[in-house]
Design a protein that fits this description.
By secondary structure, the chain is mostly helical. It has one domain. Helix content is 94%, strand content 0%. The protein contains 2 helices and no strands. Helix 1 crosses helix 2. It starts with 8 loop residues before the first helix and ends with a helix.
Amino acid sequence: MPVTARLSRKFYEAFGDEIANEFVDWFNQVDLTYRTDLERINELNFARFDARVEQRFAESDARMERRLGESELRWEKRFTELEVRLERRFGEFGAKWETRFVEFETRVEGRLTDFGRDLAGLDARLDRRISSLETRLIRWVVALWLATALGVLGLLRL
């Protein structure tokens, strides 16, 4: 919206209406030219600013994508290393427990073997004692029968 330049009445009286009007027209043309140039320069500056902002956003997006990619690779590497360590530790743990179970089984087998030997020895000792007891009982029974038979024979002779 052009602003019409106005001059004071003294200017009109000093130079006349025609020159003053030309001067006013010239001011308006200069003002319009400057406004047009300023608008064009503002549009160019805004276009350059917009292009720079777009470029910076694109660069920022590219950096962010690169950083996210690098971060994802680092995390993937860390998870892979963790998985390898866990697999190794679980393997060691399994081997350790397998060794312990084998050792336990060996000890139990050894103790059962010792128990079987002790039981066999106990069975042999028990058999010997029972045999000894049977022998002593048979002797007593025979001795009692003999005493009874002798007592009966002694009674019969009388």
